[in-house]
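Page 47, continued from p. 46.
Same chain as before, 78 aa.
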Amino acid sequence: MNEIVHEKVLDCKGLSCPLPILKTKKQIDNMIPGEVLKMEATDPGSVSDVNAWTKRTGNELVSRAENGDIYIFYIKKS
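Result:
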């Protein structure tokens, strides 16, 4: 799979809920609309958290993948 073009990377590996979503929100807030954030997490709960958060905020979950025990999200700021 080709990597999606992204402007920022956020490493949330090793963090537990709700920290990955809180850090993601903070990072997205500092980006301009159309930019893409690559966020990596190890918390399995981050999958449902990111889905719910993007739906609630209107930001776009462009892609989600798993690499072993790492969850990779590409989120486009709306």
